[in-house]
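Recall from the previous chapter that SMILES is a line notation for molecules. Here it describes magnesium ion.
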Amino acid sequence: MKKVGIIFGMESTFPPALVDRINSFNDPEVQAELAIIGEVRMAEPSPYHVIIDRISHDIPFYRGYLKNAALSGSIIINNPFWWSADDKFFNFALGTKLGVAIPKTVLLPHKYHPPGTSDCSMRNLEFPLPWASIFDYVGFPAFLKPFDGGGWKNVYKVNSPGEFFWAYDQTRDLCMTLQTAVNFKEYFRCYCVGQQNVHIMQYDPSLPFHERYVKHPAPVDPKLLERVERDCLTLCRALGYDLNTLEFACEDGIPYAIDFMNPAPDADINSVGPANFDWIVNQVAELAMEKARKHTGKISEYRWSAFLGGRAAASTNGQTARQVSQEVHG
Ligand SMILES: Nc1ncnc2c1ncn2[C@@H]1O[C@H](COP(=O)(O)OP(=O)(O)OP(=O)(O)O)[C@@H](O)[C@H]1O
Ligand SMILES: [Mg+2]
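With both inputs in hand, we obtain:
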């Protein structure tokens, strides 16, 4: 018997629906439940062969539990090691190398010193920063947003150096990025599951939260959708995520990937709507079943050099990242 466990936080629709869907397959060899975690001893296996992690980004205890479980062969969606190592700025850089269109982005040092550090800790930092060059590269309008994080927290749209410096002052000790604003016509949020199946949803970030997933979308150029799907697969295969949401803002027919580090993506029925909810519950249930059936107890490949170098390159159909990048950026 293979057990699938779901670790979750405040969400209350997706996890129980997933458990019900997996159990509705009535496979005598696979059973799912909301995971129960108690004493966690080092190097001891978890009772769950497959674990779907929806919350370890907020609860370090769970992240520690998952890494320990991986050591004894549990399969975790998503890879807790890579998730710990990953950040949005790295993602933008990787996407650029892979030929995905990414708005120009720079990494900025924390506005205020992180706790326990002082200006003495920052002696490697050029002062003042070359602001004129940074603004020249990124341009305005631009988005100032954390290099890690989500939930639209600490995201500022700025139209001038003055607005930028005001917003930067609000960012405390967060590590931020500054990114060219895309003047988008179409905007998509896409689920990608198992590095295989993509579900593209039109999304309108200007609407209130519960109306953002557009219910009756206008038709879109199929070529644009094809490219969005291809980019989703390229990025998820490179990053090794089995479950992710990727966001694209499209200007002049070019889909710019602006956020694709969402390894515990929003899947609440009240925000994504019943049809999208059904899709994601089904897909993740199928994926968990497949992983459970294939589970051997052998430790999975958790080294990332292989997928960043190998599979990512393969996903661009034999072209080098540089060739593809030239096609994209002209
Ligand atoms: N480069 C950009 N061009 C245009 N709009 C942007 C850009 N970057 C961010 N935005 C806008 O800001 C919103 C939040 O940005 P982003 O997705 O990067 O942050 P987040 O914290 O992950 O938010 P969420 O959880 O809503 O995805 C986006 O939905 C989009 O409307
Ligand atoms: Mg986002």
